[in-house]
Each structure stands twice: as C-alpha cells, then as structure tokens.
Amino acid sequence: MFRDSAEMMSYILKMGFVALALLIIIYLILRLLFRLESKAKSPYAILEERFATGEISKEEFVKRKNMLR
Fold it and tell me: What is the pTM of this model?
C-alpha cells in the first residue's frame, strides 16, 4: 500500500487534518444548537408575556404561576 515511510506519514498527517476539521465542524454545530436552545423562553417568561398583553387574567396568571412552581 505504501512505498515508503514518508508516504505513510503523509497519509497519516492528511487523515489527522481531516479528523481535526470534522471535529471542529461538529463542535461549531453543537455550539450553535445549544446557543439557540438557551435563547428559548422559559414557561414563566411566556406566562408573564401573556399576562402583560392581557391574554390571561390576573387570577389565571396566579393559578398558572403556582402550577409552575
């Protein structure tokens, strides 16, 4: 398969760079996904927003807030 040790070392280095590139790409994708997940609103924030816009009454807000605890 390999004619000499230099050719084998060249192949190993190329595969190392490919593996490193794949790891960096996977890391960046996961970092982006977790960043997007962390920006999602919490249930309490959604409840406060609905109360602030008048979508639910004060009584409903208090009832649902207690349910979230």
Answer: 0.51
User: The tokens of 33 are what?
Assistant: 């996904």
Query: What's the token pair of residue 66?
Result: 């207690």
C-alpha 25/C-alpha 20 separation (Å) is 9
Burial call 4-29: b when 16+ CB within 10 Å, e when fewer: eeeeeeeeeeeeeeeeeeeeeeeeee
- What is the rounded CA–CA span in Å between residue 13 and residue 29? 24
Residue range 32-46, pLDDT digits in tens: 888 766 667 888 989
At position 37, the amino acid (one-letter code) is E
